[in-house]
UniProtKB/TrEMBL annotation:
Keywords annotated in UniProt: CBS domain, Chloride, Endosome, Ion transport, Membrane, Transmembrane, Transmembrane helix, Transport
Name used for this protein in its record: Chloride channel protein
Chain segments carrying region Disordered: 1-30, 65-98
SMART domains associated with the record: CBS
Family of the protein in this entry: Belongs to the chloride channel (TC 2.A.49) family.
GO molecular function annotation: voltage-gated chloride channel activity
Annotated transmembrane regions: 121-145, 203-228, 249-271, 277-293, 305-328, 385-404, 416-435, 493-513, 520-539, 567-592
Length: 810
């Protein structure tokens, strides 16, 4: 199969090639036609070595190149699947027909038929249970280690801060987080919690623990599972489009990613666990597929399971099962039949139930950021909501460009050779700048929860530092607290939030893409939530001091609860996440599941669509598509429109200057000739034609099947030698008296390969590849063959030759 290699990963890719096992052939090819540059990433199509499927458990970096691969910026090797989706589905239908026919013959066969029918649902049940249990454990462990940076529970070191003070009777309302059972590191070491020395000790211990967690995370990733770094969603999208990254969904990746995700989140880096949880769920699904024969031996059906697992990952990350299903459908999956939709829904339900049973948040709710806003939103507020959408779109476009530029610097300079140093430096920088500001010191999820909070009368949060107005001392309309003038505490909090906004925007750019598990949902939502809270407080004060103006007259009377700053934070979070990922429907559903704010769907929709439109004006790619293109993965983006006017003949191989197409004839070739053809090429398969003179197509045979069949025939079939005739017809001609027996290989031929004519427009051909998930397509009368990588090369070359259109012109 063909390997994708990016020169930006110079250290990783070169090391992995240098340590490549001896049974893998690497062909040196200096032909410029085999290399193509796509948006700064070079794709190498010169090698076509075969690899095992994604469930094989083989892990090529385990054989001596783990460390080398980690000094690059991502997976160093990508391979094609062993079968196309549709032939795989055809085999599954044949298997179903056979089971159905046998079920009428005996009770045992009937029971086998029933167990086969329910095996898919059983697999979804196991995926949901395993993913939910792992997600709950990750949440609990991350919360505990995050609190450990600030202090220790004297009752039991395994308790986090909140659990430690739950049973204490000595907490006050103003200081509910302070109890004798929980002591800061300054109290443990110096006996006091006040003064410059105590602050310095707490500051130092915060940095030491953060660096220790980060060091453990990057070391474990580098030593045991290089594929455990990053988000995982770009690679999952690539795998679901029909390609395999060997070892990416293996057991070592699952174990190391689960452990290092806890450490990375606890280190205080500006990252989240939501994207990596999708990777964790897909690893669980891939491993559990080995328990069921029909999934273990069928790559097409296994990709359906991975689509459902992606939904499970979002379900356990946010407590949003419906949003998870829509996320898999809108953002991740390449092929999503109705049966996969049902099973995704069931698996997401099981995972959410499992997470709810574990109750990692300690609030007896499934949602992560539960809100109770008492005031309804007004039509006038759509203006600020749209402004937040514009901000989210601009931030998303800016972040994508800045992050991709930083990743290119990481790959093309010596920075990529020192991933451990990079992680430690960024962690130290993050810790030193984050600790003095209480809003950057706390974890991302805790910060978002604080920003979504609607102030109550006795709320002790600094964001609720309002002055008490005599005229509005009572409750406002709708049982909410009336709008009040901002006090000194609120102004101080706003300054801290403004500094936190700048800090988060800058540090997230250099954090995403490092060699630790790193998600982007929580950091993006934090940026939007801060901006939204700032705008919400500004609107609240504007309404308080100008309630007689034309804008507020009629719906915001004095003493009323008109503006809810927490709602603005929620809308801003959705806008920024939408600008970065370009999600729409799934994002809105995730947000109202995440918060329980079903009443605020319209503001969320308005902000999300606005952010997508604004971000699309600067580039159509979301962050995951941008990283796919940067890493050089063979992925045909289904959302893009094909703008070229070329024909299939312009793209297919061979071209005029190329050697003729390597084919097999249905009869007349010997075993020796077939083996010589296979050894002289590295193609993944060969067309079978009537004869060398008449290139009328008979079918297509995979290289792997051909080699296995010949090898088995030599071992088991008596008389098969190099001079034996290889026959692909149903009825072979009678052999001569002294000739060795023929080798009949009709059974391994795909008699219905997908074909197009040489005059088929390329936009139709691209749609065929996208919608059917093809790896290659033959051009008839057999003139050549066209592959997905040929299309990618053609699109890249055409983009370089023609003037670039503004996205709004497309």
């Amino acid at each position: 199969r063909r390997r994708m290699e990016n020169p930006g990963y110079r250290s990783g890719s070169v090391d992995s090639l240098r340590h490549r096992p001896s049974d893998v052939v690497v062909e040196d090819d200096d032909d410029d036609d085999e290399m193509v540059d796509i948006a700064g990433a070079t794709l190498d199509f010169s090698n076509t070595d075969d690899d095992p499927p994604l469930g094989s458990g083989e892990y090529f970096v385990e054989r001596g190149s783990r460390a080398g691969s980690m000094s690059g910026a991502g997976p160093g090797r990508l391979v094609d699947p062993l079968e196309d989706p549709l032939p795989g589905k055809s085999k599954d239908r044949d298997r179903h027909r056979e089971i159905a026919n046998k079920s009428r013959q005996s009770t045992v066969a009937l029971l086998h038929s029933v167990s086969d029918a329910f095996s898919g649902w059983l697999l979804m049940l196991l995926v949901g249970l395993m993913s939910g249990a792992l997600a709950g454990g990750i949440d609990i462990a991350a919360h505990w280690l995050t609190d450990m940076k600030e202090g220790l529970c004297l009752v039991g070191f395994w308790f986090n801060h909140e659990h430690c003070c739950w049973t204490s009777n000595e907490t006050t309302f103003q200081e509910r987080d302070r109890c004798p059972q929980w002591q800061s590191w300054a109290e443990i070491m110096t006996g006091t919690s006040e003064g410059a020395l105590a602050y310095f000790v707490n500051y130092l211990m915060f940095l030491v623990w953060a660096l220790l967690f980060a060091l453990l995370a990057v070391t474990l990733v580098r030593a045991f599972a290089p594929y455990a770094c990053g988000s995982g969603i770009p690679e999952i999208k690539t795998i679901l489009s029909g390609f395999i990254i060997r070892g990416y969904l293996g057991k070592w990746t699952l174990i190391i990613k689960t452990i290092t995700l806890v450490l990375a989140v606890s280190s205080g880096l500006s990252l989240g666990k939501e994207g990596p949880l999708v990777h964790v769920a897909c690893c669980c699904a891939n491993i559990l597929c080995h328990l069921f024969t029909k999934y273990r031996k069928n790559e097409a059906k296994r990709r359906e399971v991975l689509s459902a697992a992606a939904a499970v990952g979002v379900s356990v990350a946010f407590g949003a099962p419906i949003g998870g299903v829509l996320f898999s459908l809108e953002e991740v999956s390449y092929y999503f039949p109705l049966k996969t939709l049902w099973r995704s829904f069931f698996a997401a339900l099981v995972a959410a139930f499992t997470l709810r049973s574990i109750n990692p948040f300690g609030n007896s709710r499934l949602v992560l950021f539960y809100v109770e806003f008492h005031a309804p939103w007004h039509l006038v507020e759509l203006g600020p909501f749209i402004l937040l959408g514009i901000f989210g779109g601009l931030w998303g476009a800016l972040f994508i460009r800045a992050n991709i530029a930083w990743c290119r610097i990481r790959k093309s300079t010596r920075l990529g050779h020192y991933p451990v140093t990079e992680v430690l430096v960024v962690t130290a920088l993050t810790g030193m700048l984050a600790y003095p500001n209480s809003y950057t010191r706390m974890g991302g999820a805790e910060l978002i929860s604080e920003l979504f909070n609607d102030c109550s009368l006795l709320d002790s949060s600094q964001l609720c530092g309002y002055k008490q107005s005599n005229s509005t001392s009572g409750a406002g309309v709708g049982n909410g607290l009336a709008d009040r003038p901002a006090g000194v505490g609120l102004y101080a909090a706003l300054w801290q939030l403004a500094l936190a906004l700048v800090f988060k925007m800058m540090i997230t750019v250099i954090t995403f893409g490092m060699k630790v598990p790193s998600g982007l949902f929580i950091p993006s939502m934090a940026v939007g939530a801060i901006a939204g809270r700032l705008l919400g407080v500004g609107m609240e004060q504007l309404a308080y001091y100008n309630h007689d103006s034309a804008i507020f007259r009629g719906w915001c009377s004095p003493g009323a609860d008109c503006i809810t700053p927490g709602l603005y934070a929620m809308v801003g979070a959705a806008a920024c996440l939408g600008g970065v990922t370009r999600m729409t429907v799934s994002l809105v559903v995730i947000m109202f599941e995440l918060t329980g704010g079903l009443e605020y769907i319209v503001p969320l929709m308005a902000a999300t669509m606005t952010s997508k439109w604004v971000a699309d004006a600067f580039g159509r790619e979301g962050i995951y598509e941008a990283h796919i293109r940067l890493n050089g993965y063979p992925f045909l983006e289904p959302k893009e429109e094909f703008q070229h006017s070329s024909l299939t003949a312009d793209v297919m191989r061979p071209r005029r200057s190329d050697p003729p197409l390597a084919v097999l004839t249905q009869e007349g070739m010997t075993v020796e000739e077939v083996e010589a053809l296979v050894e002289s090429t590295h193609y993944s398969g060969f067309p079978v034609v009537v004869s060398q003179d008449s290139h009328r197509l008979v079918g297509f045979v995979l290289r792997r099947d051909l080699l296995i069949s010949i090898d088995n025939a030599r071992k088991r079939q008596e008389g098969v030698v190099g001079a034996s005739q290889v026959v692909f017809t149903e009825h072979s001609p009678a052999p001569a008296d002294d000739a060795p027996p023929p080798l009949r290989l009709r059974g391994i031929v795909d008699l219905s390969p997908f074909t197009v004519t040489d005059h088929t427009p390329m936009d139709i051909t691209v749609d065929i590849f996208r919608k059917l998930g093809l790896r290659q397509c033959l051009v008839t009368k057999l003139l050549g063959i066209i592959t997905k990588k040929d299309i990618l090369k053609h699109m890249a070359n055409d983009c370089q030759q023609r003037p670039r259109l503004h996205p709004l012109q497309l």
